[in-house]
């Protein structure tokens, strides 16, 4: 890693908590008119949220939710009588169609009363997405001037961050590969003085 990128990472670590950085994508630097500039996309772990402490003996809504979940049994879920007589005609139609169907179907259920449980997909873990930009003046009266800005842009899963980075690279026609660093790689690349 070159000196400019190391300096850029150190400047990012001064503005963002380095221990929360999950990954960083560094785009190739651009030199134009005596100024070099670069961009990075950083994914940060969400800031931990502390649960409010409950007083001893105060059960609150958590206990009520637990009690209502315990009171609801599988019999309550599949009991047609509790739903009402309006399902009787629909059940008769289903029974007629089931009798006409092929019993050798691999999808036929051995037990018609067995409830079907849908499993919700796990929500993708979201990260705070930040962009960092540097501008380094190489020529002219402001030679040596170094500016870095870091802005929080959104929150998204890592797969989305990767897809956006590839899309930006493809649209820009940049032939240089974007450098992807994991959080551990980024922290290892920081100068010793920049680490917290």
Set down the secondary structure blueprint:
Blueprint lengths: L2 H13 L5 E6 L3 E3 L2 E10 L15 H12 L2 H5 L1 H4 L3 H14 L26 E11 L8 E11 L1 H15 L6 E4 H7 L7
Antiparallel strand pairs: 1-3, 1-6, 2-3, 3-4, 4-5
How much helical structure, as a percent, in the residues?
25-40%
SSE pattern, N- to C-terminal: HEEEHHHHEEHEH
Distance between the termini: 21 Å
- How large, in whole angstroms, is the Cα Rg? 29 Å
Number of strands: 6
Strand content: 15-25%
Q: Describe the global form.
A: globular
The total domain count is 2
Q: How many H/I helical runs?
A: 7
Q: Could you describe the largest sheet, including whether it forms a barrel?
A: 6 strands, antiparallel
SSE-based structural type:
alpha+beta
Characterise this structure.
This protein is α+β, with helices and mostly antiparallel strands and 196 residues long. The protein folds into two domains: 3-47 and 126-194, no CATH class; 62-100, no CATH class. 36% of the residues lie in helices and 23% in strands. It contains seven helices and six strands. It has helices at 3-15, 60-71, 74-78, 80-83, 87-100, 158-172, 183-189, and strands spanning 21-26, 30-32, 35-44, 127-137, 146-156, 179-182. Strands 1, 2, 3, 4, 5 and 6 form a six-stranded antiparallel β-sheet that branches.
């Amino acid at each position: 890693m070159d000196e400019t990128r190391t300096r850029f990472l150190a400047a990012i670590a001064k503005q963002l908590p380095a221990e929360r950085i999950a990954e960083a994508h560094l785009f190739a630097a651009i030199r134009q008119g005596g100024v070099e500039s670069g961009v990075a996309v950083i994914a940060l772990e969400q800031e931990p949220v502390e649960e409010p402490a409950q007083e001893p003996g105060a059960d609150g809504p958590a206990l009520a939710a637990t009690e209502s979940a315990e009171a609801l049994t599988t019999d309550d879920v599949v009991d047609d009588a509790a739903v009402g007589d309006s399902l009787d005609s629909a059940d008769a139609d289903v029974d007629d169609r089931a009798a006409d169907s092929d019993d050798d179907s691999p999808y036929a259920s051995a037990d018609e009363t067995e409830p079907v449980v849908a499993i919700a997909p796990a929500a993708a873990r979201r990260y705070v997405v930040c962009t960092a930009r540097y501008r380094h003046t190489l020529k002219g009266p402001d030679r040596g001037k170094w500016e870095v800005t870091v802005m929080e842009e959104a929150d998204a899963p890592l797969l989305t961050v990767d897809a956006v980075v590839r899309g930006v690279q493809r649209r820009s026609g940049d032939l240089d590969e974007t450098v992807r660093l994991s959080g551990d790689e980024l922290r290892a690349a920081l100068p010793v003085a920049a680490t917290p």
